[in-house]
Amino acid sequence: MKALFIGGTGTISAAIVRRLAKDPLWEVWLLNRGNRKSAVPAGVNEIICDISNEADAAAKLDGMEFDVVCEFIGFTLDQVERDYRLFKGKTKQYIYISSASAYNKPAASYVITEGTTLANPHWEYSRNKILSEEFLMDKYRKEGFPVTIVRPSHTYDERNLPLGVHGNKGGYQVIKRMLEGKPVIMHGDGSSLWTVTFNEDFATGFTGLMANRHAIGEAFQITGDEVLTWNQIYATIADALNVEFKPYYVASEFLSEVGAKYGYDFEGSLLGDKAVSVVFDNSKLKRAVPDMTTAVRFEHGARIAIDYILSHPECQIEDPEFDSWCDRVIDSLEEAKSKI
After folding, report:
1. Nearest to 148 by CA among 70, 245, 251
2. Burial class (CB within 10 angstroms; exposed 0-12, middle 13-18, buried 19+) of 220
3. Cα–Cα nearest to 289, from 229, 239, 220
4. 212 and 275 Cβ atoms separated by less than 8 Å
5. What separation in angstroms does the CA of 217 have from each of 83, 86, 126, 137, 280?
6. pLDDT tens digits for range 101-130
7. Domain map of the chain by residue range?
8. What is the domain class of 157-196+225-278+296-334 according to CATH?
9. Which H or E element spans position 219?
10. How far apart are CA 86 and CA 298, in angstroms?
């Protein structure tokens, strides 16, 4: 069988490509700009192309057909419309990576199924995913376009830890604050429920949907089954670092307002996502993919990530602006407390 990945070297897709590269049943192709060749396993074929240049992509894909096309970098409706033009009649399945952030915030129930209403008033990213889903499902209903929708939640790998509040340069500065014994900002009181999924576990669910007839015309959320509070997530990271966990709790609404002044979109990432308790019902996925399980619990995954990040200097991207912003937020709130 022949699979094409648009992207294929990111947090989620890299684990899937590595898994399929070991499977003799699959011939794996990547279509991307070729910027992360070190992440491409041996035996994987590459089409070097910026897919936003539709004419160039069409020329390089001319005469090619695939059993599965997997879209990992389609964020807006126009990008999905482009894919429809490129792959209509050329694939037996088109898998679109949407997002669990597309679910209504807050939803009527904290237990999320694929039938939970899609609506997110706080995050344009999520609304664009919803529009893309609606376009693809319309093409399935009217023309039989073989789409499968996949909604990941918070998936991480050895290079990225799941964090609620971090700067625009990634999460290393939060780790550095922990190592320096400084308090780290926690949204709310840290008690909201969250689900984190190691990318290798996600790959099990995803590959099980590939070339799966039960997946055509359907949406699936792919997450682990381990549910943690944000306090537990951060405490586990602190344990992996062998440091004391020093949380400083700040209301999500306050972070959204003050963060916007400094270019931090906490309205989307917190109010539109991480600040809301969610527990995912994965029974639909497990009916389609019986092998799906949580093999990497977070206490294991956190240590894998910490060991990798601390041994790879390229992952240690400092963010002094965010560090200073955290200190100012904490100092300002402490000063306000002292005046009451």
Report:
1. 70
2. buried
3. 220
4. no
5. 17, 19, 20, 7, 20
6. 999 988 899 999 999 999 999 999 999 999
7. 2-155+199-222, 157-196+225-278+296-334
8. alpha beta
9. strand 219-222
10. 39
Can you name the residues that pair with 45 across neighbouring β-strands?
Answer: 29
Cis peptide bond N-terminal to 183, omega within 30:
no
- Residue 320 is which amino acid? P
- The whole-number pLDDT of residue 234 equals 98
Q: How far is CA 219 from the centre of its chain?
A: 16
d(CA 29, CA 37) in angstroms, rounded, equals: 13
∠ CA 23-27-30, rounded to 5°: 110
Cα separation, 172 vs 319, whole angstroms: 8
Provide the token pair at 310. Answer: 């601390």
Answer whether residue 36 shows pLDDT above 90: no
Fold of 2-155+199-222: Rossmann fold (3.40.50)
- Per-residue pLDDT for 268 more than 90? yes
In angstroms, the CA 14 to CA 67 distance is 19
319: left (phi over 0), alpha (psi -120 to 50) or beta: beta
Q: Per-residue confidence at 39, pLDDT binned at 50, 70, 90?
A: confident
Local structure of 266: helix, strand or coil: helix
Per-residue confidence band for 91, with pLDDT thresholds at 50, 70 and 90: very high
Reported for 27-32, long-range contacts at CB under 8 A and 24+ positions apart, including other chains, are 27/1, 27/2, 27/3, 28/3, 29/2, 29/3, 29/4, 29/5, 29/66, 30/4, 30/5, 31/4, 31/5, 31/6, 31/7, 31/57, 31/60, 31/61, 32/6, 32/7, 32/8, 32/73
Q: What is the pLDDT of residue 313?
A: 97
Please check whether residue 180 is in contact with residue 244, taking contact to mean a CB–CB distance below 8 angstroms.
no
The whole-angstrom separation of Cα 180 and Cα 183 is 9
Q: Is the pLDDT score of 38 beyond 80?
A: no
CB–CB of 243/181 below 8 Å? yes
Q: Name the average pLDDT for the chain.
A: 96
Find where tokens 């070190």 sit. 38
